[in-house]
Design brief:
This protein is an alpha/beta fold. The protein has helices spanning 8-13, 18-27, 30-46, 62-79, 101-118, 136-148, 165-171, 185-194, 202-207, 216-221, 242-251, 257-263, 266-271, 299-302; strands at 51-55, 82-90, 124-127, 155-157, 176-179, 197-200, 226-228, 289-292, 309-314, 317-321. It starts with 7 loop residues before the first helix and ends with a strand.
Length: 324
């Protein structure tokens, strides 16, 4: 539908997009989800990834959100990689709650989030704040529930329009605001004050054929940290190469090479709340680093379709490639 000219919102209203993925996720058991996810994770790890965020949000019920988060934990254990889980129960309105978004948000806040947090499955809480998703008031209700449980928040903010979500997220000390193509000057100022990371998602921008660039110059001028992510998901960013996102961040969003490399290291770690253990090579931090077959760092943003990884050291252990 998208390639035929339908917009993101038109696809969603026709029952595609997130809702389509929800149907498939609900039909799959944990072992099936694990088997499907493992080769995708392995491809990301082969690209040099040493830590990853896995979000739920395709179950939209306690049973199926739990299933996703349990699989995320299993993936981290099985592959020896740091996995941060984010509960995205407020991703879309499930079909059984059509026309009752308030009731669904009550379910998310009063039943789903407390139960999943009690089971140790949630590292952070996210919301899709947008016209086709959830309002500012509903977003704040989720944030309040997360705060009561001592969980950090983040937000799908200003992807399709300026909802003022970034400023709201900043008031709650959000780890990150993701997408932010339509981020306002007020949102940037709020993020600067709170230290919230702007997560750039060039894969989604590319796949959606977006033409509204994130306000890179304004973020740069305000010294807001910019992370870069794959946003790997079935509907809008089927990206499995972090290096390709580095290239796209430079070519599409006009980041400099040092900015893009910081975006997948130090700022990415900060966006996950992992700045004390990941994103840098420093005394006292676990050894997470990659040796590359390149002459200079700029080549990491130059090539696409090539994997110049020589050796990956993940959590102090050689995980891939030559040992010499």
């Amino acid at each position: 539908m998208r390639l035929a000219g339908a917009t993101y919102e038109e696809v969603a209203k026709a029952g595609g997009g997130i809702v389509s993925s929800v149907r498939a996720t609900r039909e799959a058991d944990e072992d099936t989800l694990f088997a499907q996810a493992a080769p995708r994770l392995e491809q990301l790890l082969a690209d040099g990834v040493c830590a990853i965020e896995i979000k739920s949000g395709y179950g939209l019920s306690l049973e199926h959100e739990r299933k996703q988060l349990r699989v995320a934990r299993r993936l981290g254990e099985a592959h020896g990689v740091t996995v941060r889980t984010t509960f995205l129960g407020a991703h879309a309105l499930p079909p059984e709650y059509a026309g009752r978004s308030g009731d669904y948000i009550d379910l998310v806040c009063e039943q789903m989030l407390p139960a999943l947090a009690a089971e140790g499955l949630v590292d952070a809480v996210d919301v899709f704040c947008e016209r086709i998703a959830f309002s500012l008031a509903e977003t704040e209700q989720v944030f309040q529930a997360a705060k009561a449980l001592g969980l950090p928040v983040k937000l799908h903010a200003e992807q399709l329009s300026d909802m003022g979500g970034a400023a709201l997220a900043a008031r709650y000390g959000a780890l990150s605001c993701d997408h932010i193509e339509h981020l306002s000057a007020e949102g940037i100022a709020a993020m600067r004050q709170s230290g919230t990371v702007a997560v750039l998602l060039p894969g989604a921008y590319y796949t959606l054929r977006d033409t509204h660039l994130p306000p890179i110059d304004a973020l740069r001028a305000a010294d807001v940290p910019m992370a870069v992510s794959t946003d790997h998901n079935p509907g809008t960013s089927p990206a499995l190469s972090l290096l390709l996102m580095v290239n796209m961040a430079c070519t599409l969003f006009r980041l400099t090479v040092p900015e893009a490399l910081a975006g997948v290291t130090v700022h990415a770690a900060r966006a996950l709340g992992l700045q004390d253990t990941h994103g840098a090579i420093a005394p006292g931090m676990p050894a997470n680093f990659v040796l590359w077959n390149v002459r200079e760092a700029a080549e990491l943003a130059y090539w696409f379709g090539q994997q110049p990884v020589r050796t990956v050291v993940r959590q102090g252990r050689i995980a891939a490639g030559a040992q010499a």
